[in-house]
Every structure is written in structure tokens, then in C-alpha cells.
Design brief:
alpha+beta; Cytochrome Bc1 Complex, Chain D, domain 2; 4 domains; 5-stranded mixed β-sheet; flat
């Protein structure tokens, strides 16, 4: 009896919650009222079945409750009952499926006057592409995708030249104009979803998926990625601004065309030598410590060429080619004031040094542009003359620059995190597995190039350390075991 009462209460609460509850669909802002209708029908059918099953259970609980003088009938087969059940279920399923198929057919049957709009998804953001005056989106090819051509547009295709590129997560659309959304993904599955438009679809790497809708309400609506796509998924959001034609046209005219973007690139782009340097700086791990807009551990490269810097011995030096070359080959000879002596020496050829300097010069610009970047708060360096209190493992790792590439809290950086590293199984690029015991950790620090962990670039520099320092770092990593 108690169970019957509880079931009746659950049943009443569900019905009350459905009508009085706080969770409604957001107001519709597209032509897809049919989708709301389909959702309504599905809810009606499943709701009715839910009520019927609950009421039958309550009825059966009361009517057939236990009595010592009663036994169950043996009735293994009841043709009539089975026919009824099968027939009713079939009707329910058809009632849900038919409207769904009918509406889906509409969603993928794009009207001729719809404006093609491409949404490009990547971890973790959106970019868009709109056709120019010709109304046609230019041809693309995944092989052409690069930093300079993020959509992989074919530079030889005449219809591609006037395509408008929207390299920001805010897309504007014209009110009451049908849109043919074409979805692409650069990396993994994503899903383009604007709740108010009711439609959503997966973006699948390597293919273009598409559907259409007409925005019917002016305003701003959030775009969400509705397919879990990695740690940044929660932040993969964008905005659709639906506005009348005049305002929309104004916005569209401000977006660069593909031809304009290519031209701007050819005018400001780096020379081939500087590009070589850019590649090298990434491969060698310089960017783990240096940067332009912000610089994690070493001095910023913004405006570095020709800059006058003060060294720890009080002298000031102008950063010419010779100084820069020496800073890379023998960084310990002159230490920039405010920084620790943690940069490892790099044994590079003259050509490589030349490329790196060209990169700093061209990308970093003239010293006048330089916004001095505040040096990070690096405490003692092991080589400084200050009376040396014994450093803790964390201070040492900080002072030696390890923390520019390794985290201690599990977050992803250039190198593997140290959290939980000790005694775990490591897979090397050779395919071998090694257990990260004290001996392995020591080897990883002293000769980083010998055993390289799979999934990471071989950029870890051999940092010069004393025997005590190596021991302290190994102990510190072991303390981060869990
Ligand atoms: Cu995503």
C-alpha cells in the first residue's frame, strides 16, 4: 500500500512539475515551429505511456495485493493481450517517428534562395565564411589548410576571391533570410547548436554536413558546441547576431575578403628566413620560455632587436646580432637583469642562429614598439651570489625554468605534467614502456634527448644542474606522485 501511495505522489508531482516547472524551451527564433510541434508530440506520447504504466502498476498493487488464501494463475500465453500491446506500441512509435522523419526531411531540403554560410569548428572556437557578390562559396581542400589559409580555400578558384572571412566567433545573419548552414571541423567532432533556432548538427572532420533555417527574430543568440570535444569544450561558444538587411550589409562589408586577406598577408608576412626561424623556435622549445605579446619565463622578443638591456652586472648592452647570437649559444655569460640564469645553451649552426634572429627582428619589430613586459617573479638563481638558503623542490624547479614546460597540477603544457608522474608507466616514442622510477627520472633530466615520451616534442633542453639539484628535483617529482 505504501508503494502505491508513493507511486501516486510521483505521478502527481511529475504532472505538476511539467506545467509549473522552471525549464521551458527558450523562445523560438526561427522557422522551425515544426520541431517544437514534434517535441510536443513526443512528450505527449511518452507522457501518456508513462501515466498509463504508473496507473496500471498502482491498480495491480492494490487489486492483486498478497493474501494468504490466494495463488497466482498460470497463463503462459495470451494472444489477444499480446496483439493489443504490440498494436498500441506500434501506434505510439509511429506517432513519434513519422513527424520526426517528416520534419527532418524539411531540415535537409534546402530552399534555392538560402544563403550559404560556412561554420568552421575547431578546438575550441568557431570561424565563419560567407559568399561574396557571386553568392557562391569558393572551393576548399583540406590539403590547403595552413595558418595563413585557415579555411583551406583554393587560391586559384575565381569564386573564392570574394568570399568574406569571419575569423571571430561572432556571426551576423540577415533577418528573415534563409540560411544554408554548412559545417566543417578541423580536428574532432563538434556540433553547431543555437537553442533558439531549434536545429543542430554535428561538424565532422573531412566532410561538410548541412541544414537550413530562417532566423525570424532580431537579437543576439549564443552558439554552443553540443558535442564533447576536449577540455576546452565548455568554452567553445560563439554568438549569432540577427539583424535587418541594412545593418547586416554594413557588417558584411567590413569583413575582409579572401583576396584582401591574402594580399595583406603577402605584405606583412615574414621572409622565408624568418619563417625558418619561427619553425626552429617552436621545435627547439624557445617558445616555452619566450614570447612576443607575453613571455612566460625569459625576456619578451617584442622589439628585442636593437633594444638596450641592463645586465645583472650593471652594464647595458644593445641587442645586436653578435649579442643575440651569444645569448643563444652561451646564455650564462650575460644575464639580463631581473631574470634567472635558467636558459640552457643551444648548440646551433650560424644559419639557424641567423634564422632565429631574423624571426625576432621581423616578428618583434623595432624596439620603440616594445611594451616592456614585466619580468616574472623569479626568486633566487642557483648561480646568483646571494647567500644561498636551501631551495625547496618547487623553488628550484621554478628557478631552473622547468615550470615553463611542466605543470605540477596535472594541467597540459609543453612537457608532461609532474603530477602522478613518479612510478607511472611511460610510453616512449620508440614504443617501449618504462616505469618512471628514480633512475628514469634522473636520466630524463640529465639526458632528455635519449628517452623521449610519446606525444611530446623532443624539445627539453639539457639543463646544467649540480648533483644535489638533480637529487632535489627527482625527490620533488616523487612527492608529486599523487
Ligand atoms: Cu566542440
Amino acid at each position: 500500500m505504501a508503494i502505491a501511495i508513493v507511486l501516486v505522489l510521483i505521478l502527481l508531482a511529475s504532472v505538476v512539475f511539467h506545467f509549473a516547472g522552471p525549464w521551458d524551451l527558450p523562445p523560438l527564433a526561427s522557422n522551425w515551429g515544426d520541431i517544437d510541434l514534434t517535441i510536443g508530440i513526443t512528450l505527449l506520447v511518452t507522457g501518456a505511456v508513462f501515466l498509463a504504466v504508473m496507473i496500471f502498476t498502482v491498480y495491480a498493487l492494490i487489486k492483486f495485493r498478497y493474501r494468504p488464501d490466494r495463488t497466482a494463475d498460470y497463463e503462459p500465453e495470451n494472444k489477444k493481450l499480446e496483439l493489443w500491446l504490440t498494436g498500441l506500441s506500434a501506434v505510439g512509435i509511429v506517432a513519434m517517428l513519422a513527424p520526426g522523419l517528416y520534419v527532418y526531411n524539411d531540415v535537409v531540403s534546402v530552399p534555392d534562395d538560402a544563403l550559404p554560410v560556412e561554420a568552421m569548428a575547431k578546438q575550441w572556437g568557431w570561424a565563419f565564411r560567407l559568399p561574396g557578390a557571386d553568392g557562391v562559396l569558393g572551393k576548399t581542400d583540406v590539403k590547403l589548410i595552413s595558418a595563413d589559409n585557415p579555411y583551406g580555400l583554393d587560391p586559384l578558384d575565381p569564386t573564392a576571391q570574394d568570399d568574406r572571412l569571419v575569423l571571430s566567433p561572432t556571426l551576423h545573419l540577415e533577418l528573415d533570410k534563409p540560411v544554408h548552414a554548412q559545417l566543417r571541423s578541423l580536428d574532432v567532432l563538434h556540433n553547431f547548436y543555437v537553442p533558439q533556432f531549434r536545429t543542430k548538427m554535428d561538424a565532422v572532420p573531412g566532410i561538410v554536413s548541412s541544414f537550413w533555417f530562417t532566423p525570424t527574430v532580431a537579437g543576439e543568440f549564443e552558439i554552443l558546441c553540443a558535442e564533447y570535444c576536449g577540455v576546452g569544450h565548455y568554452n567553445m561558444r560563439g554568438m549569432v547576431v540577427v539583424q535587418p538587411q541594412a545593418e547586416y550589409d554594413l557588417w558584411l562589408a567590413q569583413q575582409p575578403t579572401f583576396a584582401e586577406a591574402q594580399l595583406a598577408l603577402s605584405q606583412t608576412s615574414l621572409s622565408p628566413l624568418a619563417r625558418e626561424g619561427e619553425k626552429l623556435a617552436t621545435e627547439q622549445g624557445c617558445m616555452g620560455c619566450h614570447g612576443f605579446a607575453s613571455s612566460p619565463l625569459g625576456p619578451s622578443w617584442q622589439g628585442i632587436y636593437g633594444r638596450e638591456g641592463v645586465m645583472t652586472d650593471g652594464t647595458s648592452v644593445v641587442a645586436d646580432e653578435a649579442y643575440l647570437a651569444q645569448s643563444i649559444r652561451e646564455p650564462a655569460v650575460q644575464i639580463v637583469q631581473g631574470y634567472a640564469n635558467v636558459m640552457p645553451p643551444y648548440d646551433l649552426t650560424d644559419e639557424q642562429i641567423g634564422a632565429l634572429i631574423a624571426y625576432m627582428k621581423e616578428k618583434g619589430g623595432a624596439p620603440m614598439d616594445a611594451e616592456p613586459v614585466a619580468p616574472p617573479p623569479v626568486t633566487g638563481s642557483a648561480d646568483s651570489a646571494a647567500p644561498s638558503a636551501p631551495l625547496t623542490g618547487l623553488d628550484l624547479a621554478q628557478a631552473k625554468g622547468c615550470l615553463a614546460c611542466h605543470s605540477v597540477d596535472g594541467s597540459a603544457m609543453i612537457g608532461p605534467t609532474w603530477q602522478g608522474l613518479a612510478d607511472s608507466e611511460r610510453v616512449l616514442i620508440t614504443g617501449e614502456t618504462v616505469v618512471a622510477d628514480a633512475e628514469y627520472l634522473r636520466r630524463a633530466i640529465v639526458e632528455p634527448a635519449v628517452e623521449v615520451v610519446e606525444g611530446y616534442p623532443p624539445v627539453m633542453p639539457p639543463v646544467s644542474l649540480s648533483e644535489e639539484e638533480i637529487q632535489a628535483l627527482v625527490t620533488f617529482i616523487q612527492e608529486l606522485k599523487d
